[in-house]
């Protein structure tokens, strides 16, 4: 273990001090700064105080980690010493006890039941649908049209998730579902406010809108479950697998409709949301870097030679994958991970009291100049095999890590590359002049004002 590594459950006399960090006279100042601009606040802390930072949000002790070894130990080596952080605990209001939010043995059993739907052979079979839906979108575009590409990517990835994982055609209601999801995401901040449990009980407009959005999403999920139960079909997709799964370590029963709803909601919504954001930021970065875009187009033309992409092309589109990887470095869709310490813990010489929150920000880590020189420069060459090998594992972790790593990671990589290749065969995108680019870090990292772009035929 490296000298920077973490040791768990050994609070001794040499490890009772706290790391450096801001000590404002009024701890509420930290909370205000975090909510006003979380990325600026967290980035500023690491620049000023280093790889381990301590601060308080009200009475809550928080430790911010920006060291790959420390992050590895929290997510992998000592992962049983932690539970999900406060943000995802509150996300249960939308996602229920799905894979993203559930804990302990229940989470492990649910993950084992869902895992077969994400095996490599099955993901390869999804490739045809990914390309077909992207090609259908491409055919609808006209040269010179302006779109909010963020909305277009949300609609596309939602339709792909619905078809591949639930064999459901949700294209016709994609806008309505997307609007409900955006409403729920926008109101998520209310769920993380102090006394949010009290706010939920009040008939304030924000809570009414959140509940209405959740109800709209539930309607789609429960309809898919109801229709599948009535048909009794085994379509070999995720929904069929979850319906047939039995809790062999418990009472042998299958999932209730509520359990199915929670898993479907998590994978359906969280899965399409992150990929859509990654694609949106990719189109933006390509539009700002013509040399990279030209090399990207040259690879697509050479590999595909004018035909539609297939899953077999995915391993051959190496530069496209490097572009996608670099976009997720600069604008990671999942931009922060939180954990709560179940017991006293130790990070180097620092003592972490039980119940403390540990934050690990992909955005902050991915912009660490120790591992990514000139971190604000878009450079896909950072993702050659040699460059990857030279960096520690958790200098880059867009999908998390350890036993809770995103179950759909391989799905997202293939979807991202195949969608990019399909759309870029015919189109290039140009940012509409003076369109504001501003980060909106809520549950995921969205562009706050969307991404207004003009599509131009190649």
Describe the secondary-structure layout.
Blueprint (H helix, E strand, L loop, with lengths): L5 E3 L19 H9 L1 H12 L2 E6 L2 E6 L2 H10 L4 E3 L1 H10 L8 H11 L5 H21 L5 E3 H18 L7 H13 L1 H4 L4 H6 L3 H27 L6 H7 L12 H32 L1 H15 L13 H13 L6 E5 L3 E3 L2 E3 L4 E4 L1 H5 L18 H6 L18 H16 L2 E5 L7 E3 L3 E3 L4 E6 L1
Parallel strand pairs: 3-9
Antiparallel strand pairs: 1-7, 2-3, 4-6, 5-13, 6-9, 7-8, 10-13, 11-12
- CATH domain class of the largest domain: Mainly Alpha
Mean pLDDT: 88
Radius of gyration: 22 Å
From the N-terminal CA to the C-terminal CA, the straight-line distance is 52 Å
Please give the largest β-sheet: 5 strands, mixed
Q: Briefly note the CATH topology name of the largest domain.
A: Cytochrome p450
Number of domains: 2
The number of helical runs is 18
Descriptive notes:
- With 458 residues, the protein is of the alpha+beta class.
- It has two domains: 1-96 and 336-384, 2-Layer Sandwich (Uridine Diphospho-n-acetylenolpyruvylglucosamine Reductase, domain 2); 103-334 and 398-458, Cytochrome P450 (Cytochrome p450, Orthogonal Bundle).
- It has 18 helices and 13 strands.
- It has helices at 28-36, 38-49, 68-77, 86-95, 104-114, 120-140, 149-166, 174-186, 188-191, 196-201, 205-231, 238-244, 257-288, 290-304, 318-330, 362-366, 385-390, 409-424; strands at residues 6-8, 52-57, 60-65, 82-84, 146-148, 337-341, 345-347, 350-352, 357-360, 427-431, 439-441, 445-447, 452-457.
- The protein has a five-stranded mixed β-sheet with strand order 2-3-9-6-4. Strands 1-7-8 form a three-stranded antiparallel β-sheet, with helices on one face. Strands 5-13-10 form a three-stranded antiparallel β-sheet.
- Strand 7 and strand 8 form a beta hairpin.
- Helix 11 (205-231) crosses helix 13 and helix 13 (257-288) packs across helix 18 (409-424).
- The radius of gyration is 22 Å and the shape is globular.
- The termini are far apart.
């Amino acid at each position: 273990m490296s000298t920077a590594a973490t040791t768990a459950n050994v609070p001794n006399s040499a490890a009772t001090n706290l790391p450096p960090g801001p000590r404002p006279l009024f701890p509420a100042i930290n909370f205000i700064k975090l909510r006003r601009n979380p990325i600026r606040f967290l980035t500023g802390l690491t620049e000023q105080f280093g790889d381990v930072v301590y601060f308080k949000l009200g009475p809550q002790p928080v430790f911010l980690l920006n060291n790959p070894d420390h992050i590895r130990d929290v997510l992998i080596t000592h992962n049983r010493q932690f539970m999900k952080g406060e943000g995802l605990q509150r996300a249960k209001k939308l996602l229920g006890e799905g894979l993203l939010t559930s804990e302990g043995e229940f989470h492990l059993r649910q993950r084992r039941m869902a895992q077969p739907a994400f095996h490599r052979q099955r993901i390869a079979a999804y490739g045809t649908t990914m390309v077909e839906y992207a090609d259908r979108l491409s055919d609808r575009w006209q040269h010179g049209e302006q779109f909010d590409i963020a909305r277009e990517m949300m609609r596309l990835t939602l339709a792909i998730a619905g078809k591949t994982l639930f064999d459901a055609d949700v294209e016709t209601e994609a806008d309505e579902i997307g609007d409900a999801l955006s409403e729920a995401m926008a109101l998520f901040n209310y769920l993380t406010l102090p006394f949010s449990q009290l706010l939920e009980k009040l008939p304030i407009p924000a809570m009414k809108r959140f509940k209405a959005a959740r109800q709209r999403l539930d309607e789609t999920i429960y309809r898919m479950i109801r229709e599948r139960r009535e048909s009794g079909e085994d379509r070999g997709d995720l929904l069929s697998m979850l319906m047939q799964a039995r809790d062999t370590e418990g009472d042998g029963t299958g999932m209730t409709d509520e359990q199915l709803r929670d898993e479907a909601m998590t994978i359906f919504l969280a899965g399409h949301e992150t990929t859509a954001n990654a694609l949106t930021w990719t189109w933006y970065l390509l539009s700002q870097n013509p040399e990279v875009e030209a090399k990207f187009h040259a690879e697509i033309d050479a590999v595909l030679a004018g035909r539609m992409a297939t899953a077999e092309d995915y391993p051959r589109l190496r530069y496209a994958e490097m572009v996608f990887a670099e976009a997720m470095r600069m604008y990671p869709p999942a931009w922060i991970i939180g954990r709560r310490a179940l017991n006293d813990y130790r990070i180097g010489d620092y003592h972490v009291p039980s119940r403390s929150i540990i934050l690990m920000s992909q955005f902050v880590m991915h912009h660490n100049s120790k591992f990514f020189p000139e971190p604000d420069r878009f450079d896909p060459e950072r993702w050659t095999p040699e460059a990857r090998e030279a960096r520690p594992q958790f200098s880059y972790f867009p999908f998390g890590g350890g036993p809770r790593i995103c179950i759909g990671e391989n799905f997202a990589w293939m979807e991202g590359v195949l969608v990019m290749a399909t759309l870029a065969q015919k189109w290039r995108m140009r940012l509409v002049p003076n369109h504001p680019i501003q980060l909106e870090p809520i549950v995921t990292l969205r562009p706050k004002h969307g991404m207004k772009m003009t599509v131009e035929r190649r």
